[in-house]
Amino acid sequence: MTPDNAPDGAPASPWSDLGRPPLNIPALRRALLVPGSLWTSLDVVAATGSTNSDLAGRAASLPEGAVLVAEEQTAGRGRLDRSWIAPPRSGLFFSVLLRPGDEVPVERWGWLPLLAGVAAATGLARAAGTDMSLKWPNDLLVTVDGEERKAGGILAERAGDDAVVLGIGVNVSLRAEELPVPTAGSLALANAVSTDRDPLLRAVLRSLEQWYGRWRAAGGDPGASGVQEAYAAGSATLGRTVRAELPGGRSVTGEAVAVDGDGRVVLVAEDGERVAVSAGDIVHLRAAD
Q: How far is residue 201 from each of residues 114, 119, 276, measured CA to CA in Å?
């Protein structure tokens, strides 16, 4: 891809768009790779297809806490194999390798993307000064011109029997004309006080380390670790009338009233039935009365 503001055929330069400087790799390593930290390595590549795919391919040879960041993803993936593409250095695109170990039962690993949502939202809110909320199960929302917009997403994938690769993508400096769809947003469009990606990445990784540590110490219990309560507090889905579009083409409309101990969103359908949704898309329709 020809870099922004560069003539066709010009060599790629990390400074081709002065508003989007490259990440400061030595400073990030000094700040994050410290004794006692969860993070054990941090690599930044100029471009790759998918950090999740790359890290999963190397998982067997890496310890827990490996971090892979891309300045540009050319084949980034979201849930249901949806694509995630953005201009170089316009966001945070990274994956981390986690090994919850024997202390967390595998059936509780499904909380990892929700935990990552809590961690990313709290870290970004502090560092960017932007209100963040969560759309079940793993979308990061901001408000742009009074409307909810998706500014980020999370994808968790198993890597062998004992590891999970957790990918996080956040639109940071994406401009209105660069949005892939009208419902997308970015921290910049949400009037963030800072779009400096270095402190934003540090904030998200430190928040993720804190929440993951609590959850693992509690044996993956979402209640005892505080993750379930924090997710509910930051949720833009709970208390709303929503439509759950389920596998197989079925849909259920009702009020989202809870996220249960298995990470499922619980709806009270129009006929009064309580429905726990574990997979599918949630469409926000309107605020609950």
A: 18, 12, 34
> pLDDT-based confidence at 4, cuts 50/70/90?
very low
Q: Cβ distance 200 to 100 under 8 Å? A: no
N- to C-terminal Cα separation, the chain: 49
Q: Which whole number is the average pLDDT over 10-30?
A: 77
pLDDT of residue 287: 63
pLDDT in tens, 73-129: 987 555 445 556 789 999 999 999 999 988 899 999 999 999 999 999 999 999 999
Short-list 113, 98, 119, 95, CA closest to 45 = 95
Sign, Cα dihedral of 147, 150, 152, 156: positive
CB contact set of 46 (below 8 Å; sequence gap of 6+): 12, 14, 70, 71, 72, 88
Q: Which residues have C-beta within 8 Å of that of residue 118, sequence separation ≥ 6?
A: 134, 211, 227, 230, 231, 234
Q: Decide if 91 contacts 171 (C-beta within 8 A).
A: yes
